[in-house]
Amino acid sequence: QVQLVESGGGLVQAGGSLRLSCAASGSIFSITSMGWYRQAPGKPRELVALINSGGTTNYADSMKDRFTISRDTKNTVYLQMNSLKPDDTAVYYCNARTQFKLYWGQGTQVTVSS
Predict the structure, then answer these.
(1) Alpha carbon of 21 to those of 3, 42, 80, 114: distances in Å?
(2) Residue 74: φ, ψ to 5°
(3) Residue/partner pairs of 84-89 with CB below 8 Å, 24 or more apart
């Protein structure tokens, strides 16, 4: 089992920045990739960014110029979000993939005011 705890969400003005964190615990040796998704009200959950165990990253096209995913050696993944827009308002979810299962965190709210 893998447990994920997100933090760092909040309210920010348009043009501002936030950094989200996702701390993984449990069977962290089995994690092959981690990522961030988001879900705005009335919309489906969408990919924001992924990072695999080798450090390779993948971004949604609409966010790759403003968001950066990274991780440290303590199994925490970060999402640095710059130049935030009101359309970035959503619940941001962390996930972790193992060979057999996909785990999700509880989500953290990001609200960008205009």
Answers:
(1) 13, 25, 9, 24
(2) -100, 20
(3) 84/12, 84/14, 84/15, 84/16, 84/17, 84/18, 84/110, 84/112, 85/14, 85/112, 86/14, 86/112, 86/113, 86/114, 87/40, 87/112, 88/38, 88/112, 89/40
The pLDDT value recorded for residue 64 is 92
Residue at 45: amino acid letter: R
pLDDT of residue 75: 87
Structural tokens at position 29: 């040796």
User: Are the C-beta atoms of residues 7 and 30 closer than 8 Å to each other?
Assistant: no
- For the chain, percent of residues with pLDDT exceeding 70: 99
**Mean pLDDT of all residues belonging to the chain:** 95
